[in-house]
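Q: For a teaching handout, I want to show students what a protein-ligand complex looks like in token form. Below are the inputs, and the small molecule is NAP. Please produce the holo structure.
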Amino acid sequence: MAQLIDGKAVSAAVKAEVAEETAKLKDEKGLKVGLAVVIVGNDPASRVYVNNKKKACEAVGFQSYEYALDESTTQEQLLDLVNVLNRDDRVNGILVQLPLPKHIDEKAVINAISPDKDVDAFHPINVGKIMIGEYSFLPCTPAGVMRLIESTGTDITGKQCVVIGRSNIVGKPQAMLLLQKNGTVTICHSKTKNLKEICLGADILVVAIGRANFVTGDMIKEGAVVIDVGMNRLDNGKLCGDVEFESAEKKASFITPVPGGVGPMTIAMLMKNTLTAAKQQAGIE
Ligand code: NAP
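A: Here is the structure, written as tokens, with NAP included.
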């Protein structure tokens, strides 16, 4: 039976590290850390995420600046705000909550954020830096996954790592981070043939596809580390992952639950990125 990887505990440890360093920077260097969170429209899920980010900022001692814009905000108005925030010294990190309303081009907005303040690490410059291993920030969810794998004591070097999903925000950067830790990485997607066989070869399996209970125990190698990034809302309102937990936990050595696995890590890593941004902007790191 697998051991549970406790995302809440690991994320609390990350936030405690950030809070300690933030307090020290304030005491010793008078440095304050600020995160601007921009939300456009009234999407309820986005509202919950933004509130959670604000709460996390308070918990670690950051200033948070919320900009809640009307659904009818034009792309030009949003770009103007991003430009103002790029120049605002109180703001070390800028997060524009996605998805944006359909009339706004997300790419144009992401590209307008100064790469130094791009704490989501979505800007093409930061994406490129991850490719060459010279990054300042890592995208929050894949970075959180790396921290969870690390918490199991697993050495990634030489391990067969399989990532299911190739999105720009999870699958692709995840594969790159595992490669940088010397894993032998296979990326799977909706056109992959023999998915089950490939999964059965995985010592480390990261699943990020957005399909409830898609990966079942018979697809998992005995003793594998299984990380479930998926967050799917069932008809009964319950949250569930991309991995069928009951059958998978019988095969895995370590497994993340949903909720309480990868989810809490994403915000913790956002706090870490914002602290890194503040230090870099102050010339400390
Ligand atoms: P996405 O952009 O929709 O990408 C899904 C990926 O899964 C695609 O690459 C797709 O392949 C692949 N896929 C879909 N069906 C498949 C199948 N039957 N077999 C193999 N691959 C398949 O999703 P995402 O943004 O990466 O998110 C993935 C999941 O993670 C979602 O449930 C999301 O809610 C969750 N998530 C959680 C967090 C967190 O903080 N916990 C953060 C981000 C995302 P193609 O490229 O071929 O279409």
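A: Two things your students might notice: The chain has ten helices and eleven strands. The chain has a mean pLDDT of 97.
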